[in-house]
Amino acid sequence: MNTEQFEAQPLHWFKSSYSGGAGGECIEVAALPASVHVRDSKDTTRGIFTVAPAAWSAFVAHTGRRH
User: Fold this and answer.
1) How far apart, in whole angstroms, are the C-alpha atoms of residue 38 and residue 22?
2) Residues 53, 51, 49, 2, CA torsion sign
3) Residue 23 — left, alpha, or beta (φ > 0 → left; ψ -120 to 50 → alpha)?
4) What's the rounded Cα separation, in Å, for the pair 47 and 45?
5) What pLDDT is recorded for position 26?
6) Three-state DSSP class for 52?
7) For residue 32, is pLDDT > 70?
8) Which end of the chain, C or N, has fewer beta carbons within 10 A?
9) pLDDT tens, 33-44?
10) Is the pTM above the cut of 0.90?
11) Minimal CA–CA distance to 36: which of 9, 62, 63?
12) Sorting pLDDT into bands at 50, 70 and 90, what band is 7?
């Protein structure tokens, strides 16, 4: 996805259901068909990073495993 396509699509950010209202460390995620965008929920003015949906799915699957 090039920059022009990214800027043309609005991002709808959401936090994990595990996030409390106490301001703990958390991220916000905005998913599009071709990319997943991630940012710091405490300082949304900082930069975001973008990953492929498959990479995000693998990350979420890994973090859900109990070790």
Assistant:
1) 20
2) negative
3) left
4) 7
5) 84
6) coil
7) yes
8) C
9) 999 999 988 888
10) no
11) 9
12) low
Report the C-alpha gap between 67 and 63 in whole angstroms. 10
Instruction: Residue 60: name the closest of 18, 22, 7 by CA.
Output: 18
Give a three-class secondary structure readout of 8-47. Answer: HCCCCCEECCCCCCCCCCCEEEEEECCEEEEEECCCCCCC
Residue appearing with tokens 């990350």: 59
Residues 6+ apart with CB under 8 A from 47: 39
Taking Cα atoms as reference points, which of 53, 12, 10 lies closest to residue 33?
A: 53
Q: Tell which wins on pLDDT, 36 or 64.
A: 36
Task: Please give the Cα distance from 67 to 32 (Å, whole number).
Answer: 30
Q: Is 41:23 a contact under the CB 8 Å cutoff? A: no
